[in-house]
Amino acid sequence: MILLQSHSRFLLQTLLNRVQNLEKSVELDYHWVEFDDVRYHVQVSMKNPHILLLSVSLPTPPLETVFLGGLPFGAIEAIKSAYGVIVQILDPPRDGFNLTLKLNLSKLPPDEEYRHALLVKVASVREVVLGAPLRVILKYLASRTIAPDIDRLVALVHRPNESFFLLPQQAEKVTVVFPMRFKDSIDTVLATSFLQEFVESRRTAGLNNAPPCLWSHSPPLELKGATDDALSANAGFVTFAIFPRHVEGKKLDRTVWNLSTFHAYVNYHVKCSEGFMHTRMRRRVESLIQALNRAKPDQEKTKKAAHTRSFKRLSLKESRTNSNS
To answer: What molecular functions are annotated in GO for this chain (predicted)?
Structure first.
């Protein structure tokens, strides 16, 4: 199984190129979209080549998801904690975006290794922003306490008009539920089969420490009280139980990212499976066509043999001899 990277590769490459050519007055204006409809916009003007503006547009939140000032709760604190003095949050953000960051590249640390790690963190702005509320709740779980002023059921956006749910009402466990929806009927069938195998693989000996995982076709009881739209899922519901051991130390960042992008992870492998089956079908058709071509008679050789036949002219004596015999 392939896990998605937490940083945007294109954004990281853009930042590295900009840092390496910081003395050159080059104007940049890049727009691009990544999975789950997260849009980026990078701008650098020739007047201020050391200032980079990074704008991010998040997926459209459904009604049950709460955004504060266009961002998930805890996002502002997470940005300040992750980036420090090199980043300034512009208020209001650029039109059409949820967040605009002003990066002062001249304030990057001189140490090359530390600078690269910081740029990777900037390129992981999606994880920092969308994973902020999940990180807040799981930090309380790591300390075996319950987050104060948190509802029984917390909805977090992860796709346009779609959310997954957390139940943080226990000090020893946080339950995470994903309604799995797919637009294409073939993707729905493949995803259902994939998720069933995904749950079964948890029982192998090497995955004893992984979070317990369940799949059900109907909504689990934990989603009681959610809206009807939230309970509609054509590929079923996946439930994870996260314990303190899964969020201790450096495990927290990995757990936050894997949960935030779980649907994209499933969708990626569904598309890979579909592409693999299409490739095998094309190869099978090609092999059958080759077998049919080998079974056809060689008409060119037959015609050539007919044209190359020769006849011997017999003399009158020879013809009489043949007729008498």
So the answer is: actin binding
CB 181, CB 235: distance < 8 Å: yes
Neighbouring C-alpha atoms within 13 Å toward the C-beta of 46? 3
**40-75 burial, b if ≥16 CB within 10 A, otherwise e?**
bbbbbeeeebeebbbbbbbbebbebbeeeeebbbbb
Helix (H, G, I), strand (E, B) or coil at 246: helix
| This model's pTM is above 0.85 | no
Residue with tokens 């208020």: 91
Q: Between these two residues, 40 and 197, which has the higher pLDDT value?
A: 40
Residue 290 tokens read as 């080759």
Hey, which bits of the chain come out as E strands? 28-34, 38-44, 51-57, 67-68, 71-72, 87-89, 99-104, 154-159, 162-167, 174-179, 213-216, 237-242
**DSSP sequence for 55-73:** EEEPPPP-TTS-EETTEET
Q: Report DSSP state, residue 222.
A: G
Q: Which tops the pLDDT comparison, 66 or 7? A: 7
The partner residues of 71 in beta bridges, in order of sequence, read 68
- Segment 90-99 shows an average pLDDT of 92
Report the DSSP beta bridge partners of residue 163.
157
Inform me whether the pLDDT recorded for 207 exceeds 80: no
Q: Are strands 174-179 and 162-167 parallel, antiparallel or unpaired?
A: antiparallel
Q: What is the mean pLDDT of the chain?
A: 86
Place of tokens 């043999």: 305
Question: Tell me, what's the pLDDT at 43?
Answer: 94
Would you call the peptide bond into 92 cis, given omega within 30 degrees of 0 as the criterion?
yes
